[in-house]
Amino acid sequence: MRSTAIDRRGFLALLAAAAAAPFEAGAAGRDEDRGRGAPYLAARRQDGRYEAVVLDGDTGRERLVLPLPDRGHSFAIDAARGRAVVFGRQPGFFALAFDLEGRGKPAALPLAAGRHFFGHGAYTPDGALLFATENDYETGRGVLGVYDARDGHRRLGEIDTAGIGPHEVVMMPDGRTLCVANGGILTHPDYGKLELNLDSMKPSLAYLDARSGRLLEQVFLPAQWHRLSLRHLALDASGAVWVGCQHMGGLDERPALVLRHRRGAALQAFAGPGGVLRGMRNYVGSVAVDPLGAVVATSSPVGGCVVFWDAADGRCLGSAAMDDGCGVAPAPDEGFLLSSGLGALSHAAGGVREGFGNAPRPILRPARERAWDNHLRRV
Questions:
Q1: Which of 24, 206, 267, 349 could covalently link to 65 via disulfide, CB atoms 3.0 to 4.6 Å apart?
Q2: pLDDT tens digits for the chain (379 residues)?
Q3: In whole angstroms, what is the distance from residue 45 CA to residue 67 CA?
């Protein structure tokens, strides 16, 4: 495989420029002009620039704008201490820690040689440690990079995820167990996001002890669905893990794309009505749970829809159309905030178990100069 040294130096140069750049805040960033809605985090492309944005959920107005060296993906949020980390999109060679109120300069996380970020991370509840999904790409081994968040996010080492291609990681309600979605797809940055092992994929959910790195539990899919890549995670009110999947097989195959797992049990699959499953086109791009933990939202930018599920029994509650819609995050009123790659921001309202088939209410209309990236996170 050819060397990636030149590309990596280029990333580092861009990263240095982004880290030195000040936070940008226009009139919407002043305290007296800010909306009163809950703050959200999103990555975007705006007028040809890549940025991370803290925005108001009610109005879509910017509170803070952070320049990025390349496409951003998702965030690790330490809300109690008012900070977050934005990760580059796979294969990501940058991650920036920043203050949510714009105090101080953003700081780059150190990345070990032979590693890249997969775009997601999670803090411990006390804010002491950050865990980031990473690829040891010369060996094809999935790892969690461990960073000391009390000491400038210094890299302490890594934990093996017992799988390939760990994508999203979440902290479980006990505050010490990490759940990792091992997507099972082998990639190498020399080949971008090209899948190198479709015939031997073995996706899994792995539960790891955050203190020792010990593998506590691991669950696998049935052999016939070994190409169903486990990607994105969210926790419901009961502490069950919901998983959004992307099927790497043929379009004529229609496995369920939404899974639920409770510790010590088998994975449960929810397909919904046939038309809904077909509409997702074998791709779930993001998963979120409403503030009550009662409704799960799964987006499909490929299918142009967001599908809603009852967290208690897995019943499909309906779907909403949204072109290239991928970002989903809980809204304060039990609904969801939705973002799209076409620049739109919308609100899907509804009761706990009804109303989610209604058309979302626009907050920001589609705009040619703006494209939201895959994820939207509520602070």
A1: 24
A2: 333 333 444 444 443 444 344 444 433 333 333 445 789 999 999 999 999 999 999 999 999 999 999 999 999 999 999 999 999 999 999 999 999 999 999 999 999 999 999 999 999 999 999 999 999 999 999 999 999 999 999 999 999 999 999 999 999 999 999 999 999 999 999 998 899 999 999 999 999 999 999 999 999 999 999 999 999 999 999 999 999 999 999 888 999 999 999 999 999 999 999 999 999 999 999 999 999 999 999 999 999 999 999 999 999 999 999 999 999 999 987 799 999 999 999 999 865 455 566 789 999 999 999 999 999 999 9
A3: 10
Q: How far is CA 91 from CA 9, 120, 272, 339, in A?
A: 15, 12, 32, 22
Query: What does pTM read for this prediction?
Result: 0.90
Token pair recorded at residue 7: 């590309």
